[in-house]
Design goal:
With about 100 residues, the protein is of the alpha+beta class.
């Protein structure tokens, strides 16, 4: 299994979705993330982190609201957003940080 730190060190942008299984807005975002994934192909990676199972990561990145999205590039957080987003806006955020 890949370690989180290794994943976010990628030269390609890595969108991390910090979510919870009980979170309604997180469930709304699932099909949106699937559409974004189809549209961006392999230009970026999307990783989901369950804040209830990965409490240390949620604390480390100060996740107070779910869903929270962070785009990492070469290990550095370059963009962050909490709450739901449209396919267009999320795709644009990834492309701007590619």
């Amino acid at each position: 299994m890949e370690m989180f730190e290794d994943v976010i060190l990628s030269k390609k942008p890595v969108l991390v979705d910090f979510f919870a299984t009980w979170c309604g807005p997180c469930k709304v975002m699932h099909p949106i993330l699937e559409q974004v994934k189809q549209q961006i192909g392999d230009t970026a990676r999307i990783v989901k982190i369950d804040v209830d199972k990965q409490e240390d990561l949620a604390t480390q990145y100060r996740i107070q609201t779910v869903p929270t999205f962070i785009i990492f590039k070469e290990g550095t957080a370059v963009w962050r957003h909490s709450g739901t987003m449209s396919v267009t806006d999320l795709k644009a955020a990834i492309e701007q940080n590619a």
